[in-house]
């Protein structure tokens, strides 16, 4: 991306050539800043080039290793290096720090194209771009940015440490502590289910620096992966995204300079909430909220389908396909087996090729997992 698409820095400043008609274009002007708004399903030339480039990279440099990485539960080193070489680990990082300088939307496009081939690789890219890089970019000092962003853009993977075994569903009940000792903080505690732990060279660690303040004592620390006292445990044997390691991490008197506090002391919980909300865009709604999220997604999809069709019509674009898609099909008033198959599409797909069982050689079985 850095080499080929420096123009990716801008978002929609001009509509695509196909939309450049005088009267319809004027109707696309946003009332707030006068910039034209693009139809939701239409990409700029730069965005199309991003999708094409990442698709080619995923097919040529990731796809050949998917089965091996899944079987070994380990990310191939050449794949990680390829992500850096293609500029996919510093998508929003300012070019002055060695990043691509593209948009958040570009990150989502990259994650989508990678996920089509391997969700584990997409997760590595997603954590780096939508969590770590953005948090340092937003809350880091100039010194922190100059120290860490160039490495994150070119050579160092990263992760965030929030979850703890004893905290249950309440992440803010964490027990990991950070005790101030002069110009340093001493971190002690343990974290669970830390994604990409095995390949990370930098961790954003949430620890409580003032238990008397409750969750308002939670502070975010920049901790190097080779810090003395930081121990990464055995990876979990997971059902899916196996190439992306998920490990416990123990902190035993890990010494961190106070200059490595990200943002302000006691504001870690705020940063975590804001950043996780943003990063969820890249992984969508999962887990126990699937049913509620599914209904909400159907409703939103119907609404966006309607909006997008109207915008395409005003732009003078063909709308035959969109107009024939009845939004009611997305959420029928009564359950219908024809409209709501009992299995997810990937499950149905898996049963299609000669009724083959879901054994490991079939690529689609990994999608089900």
From TrEMBL:
<comment type="subunit">
    <text>Homotetramer.</text>
</comment>
<keyword id="KW-0560">Oxidoreductase</keyword>
<dbReference type="InterPro" id="IPR009100">
    <property type="entry name" value="AcylCoA_DH/oxidase_NM_dom_sf"/>
</dbReference>
<dbReference type="GO" id="GO:0050660">
    <property type="term" value="F:flavin adenine dinucleotide binding"/>
</dbReference>
<feature type="domain" description="Acyl-CoA oxidase/dehydrogenase middle">
    <location>
        <begin position="160"/>
        <end position="254"/>
    </location>
</feature>
<dbReference type="InterPro" id="IPR046373">
    <property type="entry name" value="Acyl-CoA_Oxase/DH_mid-dom_sf"/>
</dbReference>
<comment type="similarity">
    <text>Belongs to the acyl-CoA dehydrogenase family.</text>
</comment>
<comment type="pathway">
    <text>Amino-acid degradation; L-isoleucine degradation.</text>
</comment>
<keyword id="KW-0285">Flavoprotein</keyword>
<dbReference type="InterPro" id="IPR036250">
    <property type="entry name" value="AcylCo_DH-like_C"/>
</dbReference>
<dbReference type="Pfam" id="PF02771">
    <property type="entry name" value="Acyl-CoA_dh_N"/>
</dbReference>
<dbReference type="GO" id="GO:0005739">
    <property type="term" value="C:mitochondrion"/>
</dbReference>
<dbReference type="InterPro" id="IPR013786">
    <property type="entry name" value="AcylCoA_DH/ox_N"/>
</dbReference>
<protein>
    <recommendedName>
        <fullName>Short/branched chain specific acyl-CoA dehydrogenase, mitochondrial</fullName>
        <ecNumber>1.3.8.5</ecNumber>
    </recommendedName>
</protein>
<dbReference type="InterPro" id="IPR006089">
    <property type="entry name" value="Acyl-CoA_DH_CS"/>
</dbReference>
<dbReference type="InterPro" id="IPR009075">
    <property type="entry name" value="AcylCo_DH/oxidase_C"/>
</dbReference>
<dbReference type="GO" id="GO:0003853">
    <property type="term" value="F:short-chain 2-methyl fatty acyl-CoA dehydrogenase activity"/>
</dbReference>
<feature type="domain" description="Acyl-CoA dehydrogenase/oxidase N-terminal">
    <location>
        <begin position="44"/>
        <end position="155"/>
    </location>
</feature>
<keyword id="KW-0276">Fatty acid metabolism</keyword>
<keyword id="KW-0007">Acetylation</keyword>
<comment type="pathway">
    <text>Lipid metabolism; mitochondrial fatty acid beta-oxidation.</text>
</comment>
<feature type="domain" description="Acyl-CoA dehydrogenase/oxidase C-terminal">
    <location>
        <begin position="284"/>
        <end position="322"/>
    </location>
</feature>
<dbReference type="GO" id="GO:0006631">
    <property type="term" value="P:fatty acid metabolic process"/>
</dbReference>
<dbReference type="InterPro" id="IPR037069">
    <property type="entry name" value="AcylCoA_DH/ox_N_sf"/>
</dbReference>
<keyword id="KW-0809">Transit peptide</keyword>
<keyword id="KW-0443">Lipid metabolism</keyword>
<dbReference type="Pfam" id="PF00441">
    <property type="entry name" value="Acyl-CoA_dh_1"/>
</dbReference>
<dbReference type="InterPro" id="IPR006091">
    <property type="entry name" value="Acyl-CoA_Oxase/DH_mid-dom"/>
</dbReference>
<keyword id="KW-0274">FAD</keyword>
<dbReference type="Pfam" id="PF02770">
    <property type="entry name" value="Acyl-CoA_dh_M"/>
</dbReference>
């Amino acid at each position: 991306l850095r080499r080929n698409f420096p123009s990716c820095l801008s978002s929609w400043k001009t509509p695509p050539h196909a939309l450049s008609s005088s009267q319809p274009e004027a109707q696309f002007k946003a009332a707030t800043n006068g910039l034209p708004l693009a139809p939701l399903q239409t990409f700029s030339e730069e965005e199309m080039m991003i999708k094409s480039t990442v698709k080619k990279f995923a097919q040529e440099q990731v796809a050949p290793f998917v089965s091996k990485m899944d079987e070994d539960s380990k990310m191939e080193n050449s794949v990680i290096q390829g992500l850096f070489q293609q500029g996919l680990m510093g998508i929003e990082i300012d070019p002055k720090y060695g990043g691509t300088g593209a948009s958040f939307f570009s990150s989502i496009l990259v994650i989508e194209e990678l996920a089509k081939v391997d969700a584990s690789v997409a997760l590595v890219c997603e954590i780096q771009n939508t969590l770590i890089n953005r948090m340092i970019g937003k809350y880091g000092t100039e010194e922190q940015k100059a120290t860490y962003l160039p490495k994150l853009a070119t050579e160092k993977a990263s992760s965030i440490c929030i979850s703890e075994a004893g905290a249950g569903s309440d992440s803010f009940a964490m027990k990991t502590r950070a005790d101030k000792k002069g110009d340093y903080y001493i971190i002690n505690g343990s974290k669970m289910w830390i994604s990409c732990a095995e390949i990370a060279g930098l961790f954003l660690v949430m620890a409580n620096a003032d238990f008397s303040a409750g969750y308002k004592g939670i502070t975010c620390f920049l901790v190097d992966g080779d810090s003395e006292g930081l121990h990464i445990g055995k990876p979990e044997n997971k059902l899916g995204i196996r190439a992306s390691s998920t490990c416990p991490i123990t902190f035993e008197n890990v010494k961190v300079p106070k200059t490595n506090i990200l943002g302000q002391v006691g504001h870690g919980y705020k940063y975590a909430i804001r950043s996780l909300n943003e990063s969820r865009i890249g992984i969508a709604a999962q887990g126990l909220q699937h049913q509620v999220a599914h209904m909400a997604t159907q409703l939103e999809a119907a609404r966006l389908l309607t909006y997008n069709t109207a915008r395409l019509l005003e732009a003078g674009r063909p709308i035959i396909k969109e107009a024939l898609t009845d939004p009611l099909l997305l959420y029928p008033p009564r359950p219908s087996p024809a409209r709501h198959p009992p299995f997810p599409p990937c499950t149905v797909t898996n049963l299609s090729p000669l009724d083959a069982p879901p054994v490991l050689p079939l690529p689609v079985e990994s999608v089900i997992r």
